[in-house]
Amino acid sequence: MLDRLQTSLASFVRSFARESPGGSAFERAGITAGIVPAMPDRTVVNAVVQLGAPELEARIGDLAAAYDGAGVAAWGVWAHERDPDARRVLESAGHVLDSEPMAMARGLDGVEAPEPGELDLVTEPTVAAVSEVLRPVYEWGGFDEAMRWYDGYHPYLALDGGRPAVTLGVHDHDGDAYVTWVGTVEEARGRGLASRLLRQALADARERGCTTTTLIATRLGRPVYARLGYEELGRLQLWERRGPA
User: How many CA atoms lie less than 13 Å away from 218 in the CB half-sphere?
Assistant: First the structure.
């Protein structure tokens, strides 16, 4: 399941970057990186997924040059907590540990969609409406400029009192539903809206043929996902580097 998460994450990073205006993907054996100049200060989108320390060590200079050349000021590398060789490479290259969210996964058997009427769903959410939720949640700018819907990505949005309140996205890859960009505006929290929206998204993913779902959980999101049946796969560390090489 950890392998499924990492390959789905690499697929998402690649797709998001390629669809973003001015974005591109850096790909070498064992390395996938998204380069998103529209959000030059955000490591979550300017991220590298690596599947082995030797490949990372061989390419870390090329990666730095690619990000510098694109005008990206902050980029990061994902490494599992049980990968000390990657940690050694990244520390030597000047990266600093930024965060350690939890990798989580579950099968899609037994997922039940909420009852009709439990969510005020928007059937075709726009980037602008989704960004209206994500901007205050993440306290980032640039979503409107960087985000684009693409084949294989499924955005979800629900309203509360007629206003955008909760959102998430599902990136389909090889039978896995990778969940990303989860957010709920502050005034709508604590009422289970995100859980119901995720159940709807997972039920839809199962109908599309997905058999598993993976995600990377923040400290606040982790107990929510655990209640929905997600199991922990260990922490993924995001090693950040800011400024030019």
Answer: 10
d(CA 169, CA 125): 11
User: Residue 15's closest CA among 126, 180, 130?
Assistant: 180
Indicate the angle between helix axes 53-69 and 84-92, nearest 10 degrees: 40
Residues in the chain: 245
Residue 225's closest CA among 103, 114, 117? Answer: 103
Global model pTM greater than 0.90: yes
- Give, rounded to a whole angstrom, the gap between the first and last alpha carbons of the chain: 35
C-alpha 208/C-alpha 8 separation (Å) is 16
Closest to 102 measured CA to CA, from 215, 227, 239, 1: 215
Contact 41, 243 (CB under 8 A): no
- The answer to whether the beta carbons of residues 48 and 67 sit under 8 Å apart is no
Dihedral angle, C-alpha 111, 112, 114, 116, nearest 10 °:
140
pLDDT, tens digit (0-9, with 9 covering 90-100), for 73-132: 999 999 999 999 999 999 999 999 999 999 999 999 999 999 999 999 999 999 999 999
